[in-house]
Structures are given as structure tokens and as C-alpha cells.
Amino acid sequence: MLQIKSLKKSYSQGSTEVKIYEDLNFHVKEASKVAIMGKSGSGKSTLLSLISGIIKPTSGDILLDGVSYKDMKEEQINDFRASNIGFVFQNFHLVSYLNALENVMLPAKVCGIKNPKEKAVELLESVGLGHRLDHLPSELSGGEKQRVAIARALIHNPKIILADEPSGNLDEDTGIAVMDKLFELISKNNTTLILVTHSKDVAARCEQTYSLNHGNLDKC
Ligand SMILES: Nc1ncnc2c1ncn2[C@@H]1O[C@H](COP(=O)(O)OP(=O)(O)O)[C@@H](O)[C@H]1O
Ligand SMILES: [Mg+2]
Question: One short Pfam family name for this protein (predicted)?
Fold first, then answer.
């Protein structure tokens, strides 16, 4: 469902060119769970940003369900992302002035999904936060914030979830509980998952683990 073809990405830093990947090829099957590990600075977050279409590759192409990013204009790719991709970040990225329910409803509103409130309440209940609907992010613990973020990532039934070190800021027990919820919900919905993690235990929950080294994804 996800194909990465001859992907090249470099950043220019002043007069020098920082090469992240020169010829990256990768394939992810529908409904599979893939972990990506690798040293800090190896380009894991960059890869997720490329898959989400937030940044453009220097060359090469990405296809999601056969749809090539190459030919899409910025507006098209923004719409495509809003309907097909869900995100979970290490730092939660919740909107600080919206409560839990409003944060979860946000992507549904952008996509014009019917009954966003009902769906948001259902998802928040399924992550154990039915009693925290009107709490602001500042009134939630780290684990609760991440469970809100998971509910938000899933409300529009995305094809794929991109998770960047989702348990990286949580203590071990809270991280395990949050990952339990993420895996439970994506398995229920047959959502594809690409999960960046530094934890071998978290990676072991995925069907495949790859390590990003010197611009290549090596199977572990
Ligand atoms: N916008 C940018 N401009 C220049 N260099 C960048 C930019 N974003 C990331 N980099 C560099 O690209 C490399 C990979 O970054 P990143 O994808 O964030 O790595 P990781 O997530 O694996 O830690 C790093 O060396 C980083 O400094
Ligand atoms: Mg990163």
C-alpha cells in the first residue's frame, strides 16, 4: 500500500549539502505494522515527513495506495494527507486551547466526516478517557495526552498511522499502556502503522523492524 521509490533527500546547510538518503526503496503492505529504529539524526522523522507529504523529496517518488505524490499540487497533497494519514508525535501536538473532545474532533471536521462528536466520544471512551472529555491538554497527564492524540489520529479512519516515538516522553508503564491502546485500535481498524521507536520492546510488537543506517532501511 505504501511504496517508496528511489527516494533521495538532502538538505542544504549554507554551502554544504546534507544527504539523508540517496536511493531509498521501501514497501509496506496493507494493514501491516512496521517499526523503524535507527540512531538519532539517521533520518527517521524526515522519512515520516516525506511519507506524509509535508516535505518534498529531492527526487524519487512515494505512492500511497497507488496514488503518486509526484504529480500532486500542494493543495491536493494537503487534502490527501488530511483524509488518509493519521499522526502520533512524541510531544503529543495537541491544540492547547481545545479540550480533549475538540482536539479529537478536529481532523473529522477538516475531512467533513459525519457525526464527529459521537465518533470522538466513542474513541475517547475506547482509550479510557470518557471522563476527561472537557479537560484541556494542560489538565491531562502525559499518558492521557498521548491517548487523546491516538484517538485524534484515528477519527477519520486513515489508511496509515505515522507514529514518531509515541512513547518516547512517557515513563515505561505509561508507555506500555499507551502502546497497548494504539495497537488495539489499529488492529481493530486494519490500519497500517509505521512506528519510529528507540525501544526494542515496542518494535517487537510490530511484524517487521527495520533500521535506518546511512540512508538505507535494513531489515532486523
Ligand atoms: N529542515 C532541515 N534542514 C536541515 N537539516 C535538517 C532539517 N531537518 C532535519 N535535518 C537534518 O537531517 C538529519 C536527519 O534528521 P531527522 O530526520 O530528524 O533524524 P531522526 O528523526 O532520525 O533523529 C539530521 O542530521 C538533521 O539535523
Ligand atoms: Mg526524529
Answer: ABC_tran
Q: Between the CA of residue 188 and those of 54, 183, 185, 191, 204, what are the distances in Å?
A: 27, 8, 5, 8, 19
Nearest in space to 100 (alpha carbons), one of 55, 150, 63, 60: 150
Per-domain boundaries in the chain: 2-219
Which CATH architecture is the domain 2-219 placed in? 3-Layer(aba) Sandwich (3.40)
Measured in Å, residue 187 CA sits from the centre of ligand 1 at 31
Residue 197, CB half-sphere, CA atoms under 13 Å: how many? 24
Query: For residue range 31-82, what is the model confidence (pLDDT) as tens digits?
Result: 999 999 999 999 999 999 999 999 999 999 999 999 999 989 999 999 999 9
Burial of 74 (0-12, 13-18, 19+ CB in 10 A): exposed
Cell 527495520, located at residue: 210
Answer for the pair 108, 162: CB distance below 8 angstroms, yes or no.
Answer: no
Helix axes 116-126, 172-189, angle to 10 degrees: 130
Ligand 1 neighbours, Cβ below 6 Å, are 11, 13, 18, 20, 38, 40-46
Long-range (24+ apart) CB contacts under 8 A made by 64-72 are 64/1, 64/2, 64/159, 64/160, 65/1, 65/159
